[in-house]
Design a protein that fits this description.
79 residues; alpha+beta; 1 helix
Length: 79
Amino acid sequence: MIEAIRLASPPDVWPPRLRVEFTTGGRRGVWEDDWDLGYLIDNGPVSSAADWFASIAWTGFLEMQDTGSRPAGLRFLDE
């Protein structure tokens, strides 16, 4: 479950670094990553943020669940 998404970098830094706080399998964790979609934001910030969120929720977390690998920047708080 994603509990919060917060800005982890100063507001004037590009690309911004975002922090995702989550719980999975009863373990709390954080995932910090740069919000760099790899292309210019041309659909507006809301659409681009939705694309970034979807890549975390439906690609990153599912891949971690299926393969056991962790994306760069992801850590569990109990380690």
